[in-house]
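pasting for the record
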Amino acid sequence: MSSVRCLVAERWLIWCGSLGENEMVRSVTLFLTVAIILMASLAGAQDNSASASSDRKVATRVTPAYPELAKKMHIHGVVRVEAIVRPNGSVKSTRVLGGNPVLVDAAADAVAKWKFVASQGETTEVVQLIFNAE
């Protein structure tokens, strides 16, 4: 696969050598734009496969504390947290999957205190917490 990429890049460079300065700038811009879009789509595909959840019911929720900095800056948004839940319903560990950096610690701390309904085995839950500016 990498030899194919090298061959494509080599052919592209040869073709660019025959262009004028304006055409080369446009060509380089187009090439970089396409490369960034392809890389972003591949990264998005990897993230989607990791977000499976078993939809285990929550017995007790702890509301996250709204950070003072977020209040002052009027920051709001959604934070996604992955929680590994033990069979007894307690949260074993959390991992932030996305959200504003100002909000993620509060969200992870709150989800770590949640209690889920007991189950036969350990599960992975993906939780979305919505922070609205007050």
